[in-house]
């Protein structure tokens, strides 16, 4: 449990520094004649089209319809997102459940609780320096991959995909873990590594620039896993149940909207969050994600799904034993939203 203690201390220290960490933010602009809204600070782990339903909930006014005024910040890491919740610089945060599991394993008095799942698979892609239309995982043997943060879901998912295909991480292939998420694409463009793990629009941008080529989907390689979930502290949920329900309602409406509408319309709805990315690339990305069934069908985080994630964490050597599902997940609000007429 020593590793977990160290992680928790780091989270607390990061929490003290979060307001000066350089996270980006975006605030909804109230419409004329609109009543007073409840202000809610939302932190996302990274800025990616992987989270399209979240952006749709903002741009299409689903949060506003529920009386919520969302300020969106980008933490650039699950550890930073968890730190924001702990330090109360964010009310709700979107990241992988691994941080909540680590903190629960430590026995925190105010644990972080997952209350609404957004994605059901990993949304990252392996990008190489040359086109590999017949890519096989054995191609990475003897090569260098720019991966994610040690102990984070993306890195553990990458390791799981490698092991599943007979590749031993750090033995058959070297994985770089000390490059910040916001800098991995730039590092690859600058010549570091043979492959890089990226989320959209990263792969599409590198392909457009002729710098890299998508060779594999981590989501397709690893299967169902609760890669990103909305979290809040246990205290915040107990003190603000109506806010959590309103938030979950807006998210579910957006999930349904994304499922029911074609990629070009989804691209129109989220384009404001990617001002430096062309509409064509956004549309292509949404089509890819739709084809992979990347988004969860509903916000209920199932026990079997969390068990699969904890199996991956144990296999990666980051968790000694599973934490009880009910200690880190609250499906009350998702179930109420699903059963509403």
Give a verbal description of the structure.
Helix 1 (2-17) crosses helix 4 (78-86) and helix 12 crosses helix 13 (279-291). Helices cover 44% and strands 16% of the residues. It has 2 domains: 2-121 and 225-339, 3-Layer(aba) Sandwich (D-Maltodextrin-Binding Protein, domain 2), CATH 3.40.190.10; 124-222, Periplasmic binding protein-like II (D-Maltodextrin-Binding Protein, domain 2, 3-Layer(aba) Sandwich), CATH 3.40.190.10. It is globular, with a radius of gyration of 19 Å. It is of the alpha/beta class and 341 residues long. It contains 16 helices and 11 strands.
Biggest β-sheet description: 6 strands, mixed
Q: What are the secondary-structure elements, in order, as H or E? A: HEEHHEHEHEEEHEHEHEHEHHHHHHH
* Biggest sheet, spatial arrangement of strands: 1-3-2-4-11-5
* CATH architecture field of the largest domain: 3-Layer(aba) Sandwich
| Strand segment tally | 11
Give the class-level CATH name of the largest domain: Alpha Beta
What amount of the residues lies in strands?
15-25%
Radius of gyration: 19 Å
Q: Write down the overall mean pLDDT.
A: 89
Write down the overall geometry: globular
Number of helices: 16
CATH-assigned homologous superfamily of the largest domain: Periplasmic binding protein-like II
């Amino acid at each position: 449990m020593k590793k977990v203690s160290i992680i928790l201390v780091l989270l607390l220290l990061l929490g003290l520094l979060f307001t000066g960490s350089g996270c980006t933010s975006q605030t909804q602009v109230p419409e004329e004649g609109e009543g007073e809204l409840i202000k809610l600070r939302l932190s996302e782990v990274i800025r990616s089209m992987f989270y399209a339903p979240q952006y749709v909930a903002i741009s299409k006014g689903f949060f506003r319809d529920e009386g919520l005024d969302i300020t969106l910040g980008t933490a650039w890491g699950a550890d930073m997102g968890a730190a924001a919740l702990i330090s109360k610089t964010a009310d709700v945060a979107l990241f992988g459940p691994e941080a909540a599991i680590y903190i629960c394993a430590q026995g925190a008095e105010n644990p972080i609780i997952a209350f609404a799942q957004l994605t059901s698979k990993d949304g990252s892609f392996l990008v190489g320096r040359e086109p590999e239309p017949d890519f096989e995982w054995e191609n990475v043997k003897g090569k260098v991959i720019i991966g994610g943060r040690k102990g984070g879901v993306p890195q553990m998912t990458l390791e799981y995909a490698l092991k599943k295909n007979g590749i031993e991480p750090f033995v058959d292939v070297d994985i770089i873990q000390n490059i910040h998420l916001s800098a991995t694409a730039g590092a690859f463009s600058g010549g570091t590594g043979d492959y890089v793990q990226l989320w959209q629009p990263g792969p599409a941008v590198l392909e457009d620039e002729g710098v890299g080529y998508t060779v594999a989907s981590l989501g397709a390689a690893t299967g169902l896993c609760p890669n990103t979930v909305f979290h809040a502290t246990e205290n915040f949920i107990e003190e603000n149940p109506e806010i959590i329900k309103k938030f979950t309602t807006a998210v579910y409406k957006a999930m349904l909207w994304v499922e029911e509408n074609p990629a070009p319309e989804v691209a129109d709805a989220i384009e404001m969050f990617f001002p430096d990315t062309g509409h064509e690339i956004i549309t292509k990305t949404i089509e890819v994600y739709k084809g992979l069934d990347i988004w969860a069908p509903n916000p209920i985080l199932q026990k079997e799904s969390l068990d699969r994630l904890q199996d991956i964490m144990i296999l990666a050597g980051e968790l000694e034993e599973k934490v009880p599902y009910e200690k880190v997940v609250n499906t009350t609000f998702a179930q109420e939203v699903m059963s509403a007429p």
